[in-house]
Amino acid sequence: MRHFLLPLCLVLLLSVSVDAQGTRLLRQPTLSADHVVFTHGGDLWITDRAGGLARRLTSTPATERHPRLSPDGKHIAFVSNRSGAEAVYVLPIEGGTPERLTWYPASTQTLGWTPDGERILYASSRETAPGAYDRLWTVSVDGGPSELLPAPWGHRAAYSPDGSQLIIDRVRRWESEFQDYRGGQNTPLILMDLDTLDETWLPNERTTDTQPVWLGDLVYFLSDRNGPVNVFSYNPTSG
Q: Fewer Cβ close by (within 10 Å): the C or N end of the chain?
């Protein structure tokens, strides 16, 4: 009987251990038509959008974060501190050795791509000393100098589908989850025309409006204007 109970106990303990793992902390997803890329444990992972096993794309002691799939779904832009300073890298979805694209030693965050897939949009506090604040930059997927966009401030942003406008969240909030905060960090989301530099401020009464994205004809964002944070949309044509 003793010889039967010992294996049974081991099986039960193993089952409890597997179940205790539960759902892992998977973060910062980015989507294409066919794939989902996300971060887990400081590395990048990819899986089919239809489901299946996830495949690890990076494995370093560094931290890889903020992955952004290209419009054609073939490349991933991301930030890594593998060289010491945060920098923008690009990697094919098949994996391999990432190519470093930026070299300035300042905080950096990848935001997306230009609609044609030729340049990567990122925010960085580079060249803003002594008081660091984020501005918007782009760098070619083939490398080379970064170009500063005309927005004076920019923590998050996304291009319109035709690339003629940006939706911009200007400031980095120290505590974006603070419920019903109505202080000076809350600034309106801004639509900027990249040809005329005209700005249109989205309706805002000191609410926390964050995470703007442009899908089709509408801008989507998170807001606590009705209490709990929910998803809202804005029509740039009708206002």
A: N
pLDDT for res 18: 37
Q: Which one, of 147, 150, 105, lies nearest residue 126 by Cα? A: 105
| Whether the Cβ atoms of residue 137 and residue 128 lie closer than 8 Å to each other | no
User: SS in 3 state form for 43-66?
Assistant: EEEEEECCCCCCEECCCCCCCEEE
| Cβ pair 111, 157 in contact under 8 A | yes
Based on its alpha-carbon atoms, the radius of gyration of the chain, rounded to whole angstroms, reads 21
13 secondary structure, DSSP code: H
Find the mean pLDDT for residues 169-192. Answer: 85
What is the pLDDT confidence band of residue 183, given thresholds at 50, 70 and 90?
Answer: confident
Q: What is the pLDDT of residue 21?
A: 58
| Nearest residue to 230 (alpha-carbon basis) of 205, 201, 208 | 208
* Contact call for residues 116 and 71 (beta carbons, < 8 A): yes
Is residue 9 scored above 80 in pLDDT? no
pTM of the model: 0.88
Q: b/e per residue, 127-151, with b = 16+ CB within 10 A?
A: eeeeeeebbbbbbebeeeebeebeb
Alpha-carbon span 55 to 127, nearest angstrom: 37
Give me the DSSP letters along 111-154.
EEE-TTSSEEEEEE-TT--SS---EEEEEETT----EE-S-S--
Distance CA 107, CA 87 (A): 8
For the segment 30-35, the average pLDDT, to the nearest whole number, is 96
Residues sharing a CB contact under 8 Å with residue 149, sequence separation 6 or more, in sequence order? 135, 136, 137, 138, 166, 194
